[in-house]
């Protein structure tokens, strides 16, 4: 894979890799009791650096799709639909496989094994499910309607979603944890046993209804990718991205008092805010890497290693960490807790030890990505 061939943007590979590295960092602290505020999600309203990771990833999905879609469309409609539905189905299947992993558990008291295939409490939605659905919907809209109409739909989704939350939520409590329409629809469709339980009540931050504006995140990423290809590695491209990013940030901040920025509801102001910031980051990377060619020590290589196998490395990180929880080390302590309390906490203390644990895993999976890159192995889902 030649990153310097004509038409390829190193900056976009770096953006994608930065997103994956940040995903691993924020998902794997040594202890959730000791997480620095920027590396944790906002409690409800607001946006931390951690809250940018998922929308940046969806933006990157759309961005990458703008480069690959033309290749598949040249093969005919059947090839496009096969690609879209195959990828969607694979991501869904992988997400459920991860849910059940490691498939069997050992009971140290009874010295017996039992399977983990209990469908009565499986979480239906989730991060990978949202990626699959948002990708599928955006790809179909762009394929059948063209970019201009798909972009218009992506824009119209934002006020429509606001209206749905106001109309279907509890009067006066439409944007609260227990009164929002996202929760109501998921509870109706799946029941409380199939929702995420980490918020104190059954509520899924990747719910069905809140996946609707996530589709807009992918479409906006696609439009940005097309713009970058049209303008090339130029100051005009950088200026256009900054202008669009500034407009989106201004709209988000103006909308915020009425429809607050909130990742867990994926509010429309959150879509505009995170898209605006993504445009800023890409503009800076294009200016640094494509125009100024500023790459001392080949620093970009660290991130492109992640960016070449993004979804695979993210899934691998999930699987490895879940394996830690399945490996008993001492009575009442699994390998995850053992690594933190025996290795990182004594060396660095509570807070820095928790961060060091996360950084260690970023470096661990970077080494995996580096090995794959050197072997020219690029795993596409």
Automatic annotation (TrEMBL):
Signal peptide: none annotated. Keywords: Acyltransferase, Membrane, Transferase, Transmembrane, Transmembrane helix. The chain crosses the membrane at residues 12-32, 52-72, 84-104, 124-143, 150-168, 207-225, 237-258, 270-290, 311-331, 351-372. GO terms for molecular function: acyltransferase activity. This is Acyltransferase family protein. The lineage of its organism: Bacteria, Pseudomonadati, Bacteroidota, Chitinophagia, Chitinophagales.
């Amino acid at each position: 894979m030649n990153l310097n061939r004509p038409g390829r943007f190193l900056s976009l590979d770096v953006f994608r890799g930065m997103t994956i590295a940040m995903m691993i960092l924020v998902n794997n602290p040594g202890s959730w009791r000791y997480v620095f505020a920027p590396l944790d999600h906002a409690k409800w309203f607001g946006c931390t650096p951690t809250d940018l990771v998922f929308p940046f990833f969806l933006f990157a999905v759309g961005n990458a799709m703008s480069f690959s879609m033309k290749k598949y469309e040249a093969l005919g409609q059947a090839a496009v639909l096969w690609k879209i539905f195959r990828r969607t189905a694979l991501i869904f299947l992988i997400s459920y496989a991860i849910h059940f992993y490691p498939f069997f558990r050992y009971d140290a008291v009874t010295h017996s094994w039992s399977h983990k295939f209990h469908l009565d409490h499986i979480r239906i939605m989730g991060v990978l499910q949202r990626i699959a659905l948002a990708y599928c919907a955006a790809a179909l809209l762009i394929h059948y309607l063209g970019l201009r109409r798909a972009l218009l739909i992506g824009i119209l989704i934002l006020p429509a979603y606001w209206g749905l939350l106001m109309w279907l939520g509890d009067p006066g409590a439409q944007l609260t944890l227990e009164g929002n329409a996202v929760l109501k629809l998921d509870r109706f469709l799946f029941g409380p046993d199939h929702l995420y339980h980490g918020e104190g009540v059954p509520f899924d931050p990747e719910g069905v209804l809140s996946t609707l504006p996530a589709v807009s995140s992918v479409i906006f990423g696609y439009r940005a990718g097309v713009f970058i290809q049209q303008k090339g590695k130029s100051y005009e491209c950088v200026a256009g991205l900054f202008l669009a990013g500034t407009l989106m940030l201004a709209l988000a901040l103006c909308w915020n008092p009425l429809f607050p920025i909130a990742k867990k509801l994926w509010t429309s102001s959150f879509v505009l805010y995170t898209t605006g910031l993504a445009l800023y980051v890409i503009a800076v990377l294009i200016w640094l890497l494509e125009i100024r060619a500023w790459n001392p020590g080949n620093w970009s290589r660290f991130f492109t290693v992640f960016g070449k196998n993004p979804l695979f490395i993210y899934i691998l990180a999930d699987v490895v960490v879940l394996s830690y929880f399945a490996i008993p080390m001492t009575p009442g302590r699994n390998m995850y807790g053992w690594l933190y309390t025996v290795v990182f906490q004594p060396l660095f203390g509570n807070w820095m030890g928790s961060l060091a644990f996360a950084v260690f895993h970023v470096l661990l999976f970077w080494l995996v990505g580096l090995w794959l890159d050197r072997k020219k192995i690029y795993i596409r889902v």
